[in-house]
Amino acid sequence: MAFSILASLLFVCYAYARAVPRAHIPLRDTSACLDVTRDVQQSWSMYSPYFPAATYVAPPASCQINQVHIIQRHGARFPTSGAAKRIQTAVAKLKAASNYTDPLLAFVTNYTYSLGQDSLVELGATQSSEAGQEAFTRYSSLVSADELPFVRASGSDRVVATANNWTAGFALASSNSITPVLSVIISEAGNDTLDDNMCPAAGDSDPQVNQWLAQFAPPMTARLNAGAPGANLTDTDTYNLLTLCPFETVATERRSEFCDIYEELQAEDAFAYNADLDKFYGTGYGQPLGPVQGVGYINELIARLTAQNVSDHTQTNSTLDSSPETFPLNRTLYADFSHDNQMVAIFSAMGLFNQSAPLDPTTPDPARTFLVKKIVPFSARMVVERLDCGGAQSVRLLVNDAVQPLAFCGADTSGVCTLDAFVESQAYARNDGEGDFEKCFAT
């Protein structure tokens, strides 16, 4: 399938792009050109460029897909403004060292921090376009020039840019015979089912993340301070320096020099578990008011699956959801664009990736099922396929192409359960969070 020729997109591998005419470059693993091993990239978790968690498998032969729902995280981005300030503080401390006695840090003498803030990077735009191409390739039988995908995005610039690159990729894959557009941008200042902005009383993951930081970071910090006398780095500084490995690599599409530090300090497992704790206790199962933030989207999903009006009293925008122009119920393919924290809330409200026990902030469980690298890397996506299985309306759900078992609705070994059973299983959402949403505003 052709690769995007939009001027805003760059090719990940310069030599590859030069060698092959653009009109014939196939979809591929763009992250393979970043000069960082796959295992290290995946350890970046929510900062990893997109990887499928499994190989896509078609539904059983007895089932035909008749409707598809996609919710996708924005593509790879620069650090947020808050993260950028913390990173720059850590870099300034490191550069203030009197000298560097560890050869690992020699590059810092000539290092200049140059990343932007918040916005999508070119690799993120590329992978968003490729996601659109993949969606057309996989579900082209559901769409036509008169039956376009319906596309929404949360109002953040990077989310809107992701949606626009996705629609461009979708159109390109169809040789511009099918040209979806971004129809609805939902303001993040109001009711928004695609952003976690409506639960002021919710806590955060700082206690658990700080506990883990105190567990893994001190030896790393000691090594860095020994090699950079006078830097006086804290454990928090060490973590922020480690994030430069993923952020610079996805931004420049070249291996960051900080990846040498990341790998020398053997940060992979510690960094990945930090991410797991961050999301689990941020908007996931470990946060009492985390899952309720995903309820509104699930009720919108149920409305679309069943072609019935939205029934929700949580995050939904009733004005948008009551209009067939801004919330149609008769489309065959829907694509929504969101953030990682919101998608974790949706997964947790739905019952995906549930843990048998909460994550321990001091000791990782190697058998844990809540793995951020498989849940919300950049460009992560959940796809709900509505199926006709011999006349029975059914559903199948995939996260990053991995079919979910859906034990909560009695799915068979192929991950398929009846639509009625799926809807029934979502009682928490259908009951507006069973009182949790009101707690979001408790004083």
UniProtKB/TrEMBL annotation:
According to UniProt, the reaction catalysed is: 1D-myo-inositol 1,2,6-trisphosphate + H2O = 1D-myo-inositol 1,2-bisphosphate + phosphate; 1D-myo-inositol 1,2-bisphosphate + H2O = 1D-myo-inositol 2-phosphate + phosphate; 1D-myo-inositol 1,2,5,6-tetrakisphosphate + H2O = 1D-myo-inositol 1,2,6-trisphosphate + phosphate; 1D-myo-inositol 1,2,4,5,6-pentakisphosphate + H2O = 1D-myo-inositol 1,2,5,6-tetrakisphosphate + phosphate
Instruction: Show the InterPro entries listed in the entry.
Output: Acid_Pase_AS, His_Pase_clade-2, His_PPase_superfam, Histidine_acid_Pase_euk
The species this protein was found in: Trametes pubescens (White-rot fungus)
Cite the GO molecular-function annotations of the record. Answer: acid phosphatase activity; inositol hexakisphosphate 3-phosphatase activity
Where, by residue number, is the active site?
74, 340
Task: Give disulfide pairs as residue numbers.
Answer: 63-389, 199-440, 245-259, 409-417
Q: What is known about its subunit structure?
A: Monomer.
* Subcellular localization: Secreted
Pfam families for the chain: His_Phos_2
Q: What is its main location?
A: secreted
Range of residues in the leader sequence: 1-17
Name the UniProt record assigns to this protein: Phytase A
* Recorded GO CC terms: extracellular region
Which keywords has UniProt assigned to this entry?
Answer: Disulfide bond, Glycoprotein, Hydrolase, Secreted, Signal
